[in-house]
Amino acid sequence: MAHDVTTGVPASPSAPAGGGAGARAEGTPGRGRRGGHWTAWAFLAPIVIYLLAFYAYPLYRNLDLSLRHYTVRSFVQGDAPFSGFDNYRDVFADPAFGPALLHTLTFTVVSIAFQFAIGLALAVFFAQNFRLSATLRALFLVPWLLPLIVSASTWTWMLNSDSGIVNHALELIHVDPVNWLTSPDWALTSVIIANVWIGIPFNLVVLYSGLQAIPAEVHEAASIDGANGWQRFWRVTFPLLRPVSAITLLLGLVYTLKVFDLIWIMTKGGPADASITFATWSYRFSFGSLLPEFGPGAAVGNLLIVMALFFGLLYIRFQRRQA
Amino acid sequence: MRRAKTVLGLIFTAIMLFPVYWMINVSFTRDTDMRADPPHLFPLDGTLEGYRAVLDQQLPYLGTSLIVGLGTVALTLALSAPAGFALAKLRPKGGGVLSFVLLIAQMIPGIIMAMGFYAIYLRLGVLNTVGGLILADSTIAVPFGVLIFTAFMSGIPDELIHAAMIDGATTWRTFVSVILPVSRNAIVTVSLFAFLWAWSDFVFATTLDGGGDAQPITLGIYHYIGNNNQQWNAIMATAVIASIPATLLLILAQRYVAAGVTAGAVKD
């Protein structure tokens, strides 16, 4: 029992995140403890107050910011005039809107495609349980655990145009050096590469635990029927892994949409908006210059929430159906 | 055949961890060799210059990060353990809605929370305070904490609680003396992630604590990159030091980490 989290979870990675409480509540009915209704809410009171004060209120403030015309002075004094959807109109009309939307989508989709494909390939590879496989699999977690500022600054130096190791490696195979972070053609690619590196471990671990949950007999039966490794993967493993894959992809979408640190540290969204995304654009409005524009910043942020919640709700719906 | 797989596994791991190696290598490289062509692959005649710079300049930042990390852990545990217990074992009406709200809360981009916090903190005058940063950082970990505690405590047999109740223990007493001691694994998992996320946080630090005396190590590195981008050995040495908590975590608590990731753990 004491191992519930450590061993129980990997067998069904979806259970806890999918509101396990609701799912399990039906299993063991309250057994007459309904009288303790108030006791229960006494236990929940701190978190409810917390959610209202530190989630709901900041979000409300953010919505309020996006609907008013703020200047630095009125931001401090809090008497900015209501301006309806003006900030949103300004944002839509901004020349950076198109690029920001396109880059957000490109960054998210390309990152996830590579993270998932590489993560899945590695999960299948590590599932073969060779010598050292558990240790090496654990080492793969390192990039995911490092502070983002550490990964971002390391990649910044590795991708340095003149002295970076990446361009030196290219030189060895007679490829011209690339201005990874300073050329508008390559900046987005550079942050995607770094982000794929960071995201592979998450995909590997979740997909690996999904693979572990597939009974070995299934593979044995397929082998006996004469399926080779390739066929076994595409005809047996991959279809059985579909629920876990969907969950991994949807969670990845939600969390890649909001990537901010990495891009801001590596390129600040530049050069010339070449790697600007909604998250970095929003930050730049509000904090990126000496003259903050909180209204448009909040408006962009709220657009980002809508995108994240769309995929988030899709994920929760999917989770519930699995349970 | 099996040996070939081990070799292949080693090669994959080496490729994956190359940036980490490179960070360590550069942290020992002398300034004069920093732009050498070809670059020095091993820090053969290395220097501790970078680490000396860390000791001279970055210790206050590290101290702040430690306090912020521990404060975030305490706040996260205090909020999420009782909530997890109530949702898993007391199951009040409306508990399902709360779980749903927590799931949604987890998905809100940090940058948007940061903007709301900034507006509020500015009015309250708590910008650039350690307490304010702890509070903001805890929003990354609290929903995750509740989910982990709920999932874990659902696995604790009801008989254990009934036995305590029959012995005359109040619900609070049962929670403290019966539930918490057997929930050690969940407490460790939540603490580890809360600490790591607070330690790694950049978004809240840069928006809410960018101008104070007590800034965390993530800002220490960020200012370093901004100010003297020639001294890469010092920057990378700071990065190496800032990676120590993550490394310790992986060595000492690997099984908790894997459990945390698969439980829908999320990096902000």
Automatic annotation (TrEMBL), chain A:
<feature type="domain" description="ABC transmembrane type-1">
    <location>
        <begin position="101"/>
        <end position="315"/>
    </location>
</feature>
<feature type="region of interest" description="Disordered">
    <location>
        <begin position="1"/>
        <end position="33"/>
    </location>
</feature>
<comment type="similarity">
    <text>Belongs to the binding-protein-dependent transport system permease family.</text>
</comment>
<feature type="transmembrane region" description="Helical">
    <location>
        <begin position="138"/>
        <end position="158"/>
    </location>
</feature>
<feature type="transmembrane region" description="Helical">
    <location>
        <begin position="294"/>
        <end position="316"/>
    </location>
</feature>
<keyword id="KW-1003">Cell membrane</keyword>
<keyword id="KW-1133">Transmembrane helix</keyword>
<keyword id="KW-0762">Sugar transport</keyword>
<dbReference type="Pfam" id="PF00528">
    <property type="entry name" value="BPD_transp_1"/>
</dbReference>
<feature type="transmembrane region" description="Helical">
    <location>
        <begin position="100"/>
        <end position="126"/>
    </location>
</feature>
<keyword id="KW-0472">Membrane</keyword>
<feature type="transmembrane region" description="Helical">
    <location>
        <begin position="38"/>
        <end position="57"/>
    </location>
</feature>
<keyword id="KW-0812">Transmembrane</keyword>
<keyword id="KW-0813">Transport</keyword>
<dbReference type="InterPro" id="IPR000515">
    <property type="entry name" value="MetI-like"/>
</dbReference>
<feature type="transmembrane region" description="Helical">
    <location>
        <begin position="240"/>
        <end position="257"/>
    </location>
</feature>
<dbReference type="InterPro" id="IPR035906">
    <property type="entry name" value="MetI-like_sf"/>
</dbReference>
<feature type="transmembrane region" description="Helical">
    <location>
        <begin position="186"/>
        <end position="208"/>
    </location>
</feature>
<dbReference type="GO" id="GO:0005886">
    <property type="term" value="C:plasma membrane"/>
</dbReference>
<protein>
    <submittedName>
        <fullName>Multiple sugar transport system permease protein</fullName>
    </submittedName>
</protein>
<dbReference type="GO" id="GO:0055085">
    <property type="term" value="P:transmembrane transport"/>
</dbReference>
TrEMBL record, chain B:
<feature type="transmembrane region" description="Helical">
    <location>
        <begin position="66"/>
        <end position="88"/>
    </location>
</feature>
<dbReference type="Pfam" id="PF00528">
    <property type="entry name" value="BPD_transp_1"/>
</dbReference>
<keyword id="KW-0762">Sugar transport</keyword>
<keyword id="KW-1003">Cell membrane</keyword>
<protein>
    <submittedName>
        <fullName>Multiple sugar transport system permease protein</fullName>
    </submittedName>
</protein>
<dbReference type="GO" id="GO:0055085">
    <property type="term" value="P:transmembrane transport"/>
</dbReference>
<dbReference type="GO" id="GO:0005886">
    <property type="term" value="C:plasma membrane"/>
</dbReference>
<dbReference type="InterPro" id="IPR035906">
    <property type="entry name" value="MetI-like_sf"/>
</dbReference>
<keyword id="KW-0813">Transport</keyword>
<comment type="similarity">
    <text>Belongs to the binding-protein-dependent transport system permease family.</text>
</comment>
<keyword id="KW-0812">Transmembrane</keyword>
<feature type="transmembrane region" description="Helical">
    <location>
        <begin position="133"/>
        <end position="153"/>
    </location>
</feature>
<feature type="transmembrane region" description="Helical">
    <location>
        <begin position="232"/>
        <end position="253"/>
    </location>
</feature>
<feature type="transmembrane region" description="Helical">
    <location>
        <begin position="100"/>
        <end position="121"/>
    </location>
</feature>
<keyword id="KW-1133">Transmembrane helix</keyword>
<feature type="transmembrane region" description="Helical">
    <location>
        <begin position="7"/>
        <end position="24"/>
    </location>
</feature>
<dbReference type="InterPro" id="IPR000515">
    <property type="entry name" value="MetI-like"/>
</dbReference>
<keyword id="KW-0472">Membrane</keyword>
<feature type="domain" description="ABC transmembrane type-1">
    <location>
        <begin position="62"/>
        <end position="253"/>
    </location>
</feature>
<feature type="transmembrane region" description="Helical">
    <location>
        <begin position="174"/>
        <end position="199"/>
    </location>
</feature>
<dbReference type="InterPro" id="IPR050901">
    <property type="entry name" value="BP-dep_ABC_trans_perm"/>
</dbReference>
